[in-house]
C-alpha cells in the first residue's frame, strides 16, 4: 500500500511501486527537472560554503533526484526538502513533495507537523537571507520588509501545495467511497435480483401445485364416478336393460359435466396466461402464474359448486348433492350432521367440501362397494368432518382407477393453511378414515 492512495488503482504492469507507466514517466520527469534545478542551485551554494563547485552540483543532483520516490515515501521527500532549505535549493521538490504528502493517506497530524516544519524552515531561511541582503546594502527597504518577506515566501511555498493536496486527497477518497458504494449497491441489487428470481420460481411452483390441485379436485371426482357407472353398466347391460339405460344416462351427464369443467379450466388458464403476458409487457411485476392460479381456482370453484356457488366456490350445502352422486353410483353412504348448521367463510366451506369430496373419491377408487359414513359436526368455534368406510366386500372388485397419491396431501396442505388439523389412515377394522377440523375463524386469521 502506498501513502498517496495509488493502491486504489488496479495494477496495470507499471514498474516497481508505480501502478501505471504513465505515473512512472511523470515522476521520473519531475525528478529530472528537480535534479537539474538543485544542481544549478548547488553552484552558488558551493561558492558560499567554500566547497568545490562540482561537489555542490553533485549534492544538488542527488537531492533533487529524491523526488522520484514521492509516491512511495512522501515523508522522505519532504524531510530532504527541509534539510536542503538552508542551501536555498529544491523549490520544485518542496512544492511537489508537500502536495504529495497532503494528498496521501497519512494521518493528518503527520501532514500538519511536516508542513509546519517546512513553513518554519522556509520562513527562517528567508528571514536570514533578506537580513543579509539588507546588511550588504543590496536592499534599502525598511525593517518591516524582513518579516513580511519571510512570512509571505513561506506561506507562498507551503500553503498552496498543501491545500491543493488536501483537496485532491479528499476528492480521491470521496470518489473511492462512491465507487465502493456503487459496487456495494450493485452487489445488493444482484442479490435482490437473485432473491426475486428465487421468489418468482417459488411462486411459479406454488401456482403450478395449486392449479394441479384444483384440476384434481374438479375432474377426478366426476371421472371416478363415470368409471364406476361404466363398470355397473357393463355388469347389468344384459340382465337389466332399464338400469343399464339409467347408468348410461348418468355416465353421459357426468361426462358432459367433466368436459364442461375441463373446458372452463383450460379457458381460464389460457386467459390468465395472456393477461400475464400483457402484464409483463407493461412491466408489472406480478408472476403470470399467480393470475393463472387465482383464475384457475375461481374456475374450479365455479365448476364444482354450480351456479349458486359461482362467486364463492363449493359450499357445505352441496355436500348432500355430493353424497347423492356417490349413492347413485352404487355406494352405500350414511350422512349425519351434528349441531346447528350455519354459514362459514367461503374458504372454510370450500375446504370442508373438498375434504369430503376427496375422501369419497378415494372410496370409489380403492374400496368399491364398502359402506361409507360421512359425519359433519358444527361446533362452537370449529367445523369437523369425518369420512370413514368399512372394509370392502371380498367379492367387490377394484375400480381400477389410477391414483397419484396427491389428493390427501393436497387436502392436508389446505387444512393446515387454515390452522386446522387433518388426519388420515386405516382403521382397526380394516377400513379407512379421513378426519379434519377447521377453525371457524380461519379466514379472519389468514
Automatic annotation (TrEMBL):
Reaction(s) this enzyme catalyzes, per UniProt: ATP + protein L-histidine = ADP + protein N-phospho-L-histidine
Gene Ontology terms for molecular function: kinase activity
Transmembrane segments: 49-69, 75-98, 110-128, 148-170
SUPFAM superfamilies: ATPase domain of HSP90 chaperone/DNA topoisomerase II/histidine kinase (SSF55874)
Coiled coil (UniProt feature): 168-206
InterPro entries: HATPase_C_sf, Sensor_HK_TwoCompSys, Sig_transdc_His_kin_sub3_dim/P
Residues covered by the Signal transduction histidine kinase subgroup 3 dimerisation and phosphoacceptor domain: 207-272
EC number(s) stated in the UniProt entry for this protein: 2.7.13.3
Protein name: histidine kinase
Amino acid at each position: 500500500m502506498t501513502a498517496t492512495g495509488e493502491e486504489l488503482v488496479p495494477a496495470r504492469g507499471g514498474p516497481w511501486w508505480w501502478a501505471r507507466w504513465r505515473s512512472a514517466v511523470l515522476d521520473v520527469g519531475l525528478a529530472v527537472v528537480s535534479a537539474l534545478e538543485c544542481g544549478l542551485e548547488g553552484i552558488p551554494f558551493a561558492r558560499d560554503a567554500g566547497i568545490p563547485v562540482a561537489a555542490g552540483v553533485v549534492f544538488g543532483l542527488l537531492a533533487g533526484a529524491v523526488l522520484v520516490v514521492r509516491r512511495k515515501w512522501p515523508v522522505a521527500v519532504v524531510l530532504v526538502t527541509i534539510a536542503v532549505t538552508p542551501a536555498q535549493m529544491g523549490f520544485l521538490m518542496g512544492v511537489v513533495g508537500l502536495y504529495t504528502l497532503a494528498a496521501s493517506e497519512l494521518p493528518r497530524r503527520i501532514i500538519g507537523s511536516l508542513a509546519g516544519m517546512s513553513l518554519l524552515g522556509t520562513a527562517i531561511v528567508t528571514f536570514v537571507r533578506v537580513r543579509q541582503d539588507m546588511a550588504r546594502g543590496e536592499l534599502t527597504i525598511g525593517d518591516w520588509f524582513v518579516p513580511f518577506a519571510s512570512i509571505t515566501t513561506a506561506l507562498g511555498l507551503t500553503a498552496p501545495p498543501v491545500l491543493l493536496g488536501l483537496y485532491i486527497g479528499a476528492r480521491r477518497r470521496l470518489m473511492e467511497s462512491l465507487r465502493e458504494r456503487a459496487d456495494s449497491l450493485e452487489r445488493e441489487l444482484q442479490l435482490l435480483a437473485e432473491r426475486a428470481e428465487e421468489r418468482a420460481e417459488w411462486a411459479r411452483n406454488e401456482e403450478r401445485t395449486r392449479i394441479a390441485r384444483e384440476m384434481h379436485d374438479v375432474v377426478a371426482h366426476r371421472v371416478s364416478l363415470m368409471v364406476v357407472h361404466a363398470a355397473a353398466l357393463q355388469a347389468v347391460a344384459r340382465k337389466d336393460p332399464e338400469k343399464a339405460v339409467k347408468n348410461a344416462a348418468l355416465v353421459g351427464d357426468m361426462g358432459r359435466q367433466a368436459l364442461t369443467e375441463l373446458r372452463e379450466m383450460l379457458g381460464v388458464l389460457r386467459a390468465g396466461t395472456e393477461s400475464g403476458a400483457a402484464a409483463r409487457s407493461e412491466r408489472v411485476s406480478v408472476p403470470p402464474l399467480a393470475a393463472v392460479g387465482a383464475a384457475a381456482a375461481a374456475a374450479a370453484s365455479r365448476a364444482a359448486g354450480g351456479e349458486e356457488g359461482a362467486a364463492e366456490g363449493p359450499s357445505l350445502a352441496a355436500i348432500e348433492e355430493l353424497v347423492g352422486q356417490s349413492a347413485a353410483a352404487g355406494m352405500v353412504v350414511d350422512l349425519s350432521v351434528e349441531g346447528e348448521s350455519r354459514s362459514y367463510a367461503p374458504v372454510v366451506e370450500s375446504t370442508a367440501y373438498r375434504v369430503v369430496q376427496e375422501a369419497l373419491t378415494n372410496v370409489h377408487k380403492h374400496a368399491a362397494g364398502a359402506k361409507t359414513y360421512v359425519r359433519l359436526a358444527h361446533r362452537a368455534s370449529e367445523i369437523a368432518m369425518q369420512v370413514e368406510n368399512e372394509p370392502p366386500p371380498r367379492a367387490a372388485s377394484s375400480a381400477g382407477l389410477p391414483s397419484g397419491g396427491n389428493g390427501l396431501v393436497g387436502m392436508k396442505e389446505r387444512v393446515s393453511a387454515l390452522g386446522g388439523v387433518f388426519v388420515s389412515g386405516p382403521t382397526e377394522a380394516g377400513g379407512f378414515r379421513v378426519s379434519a377440523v377447521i377453525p371457524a375463524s380461519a379466514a379472519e386469521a389468514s
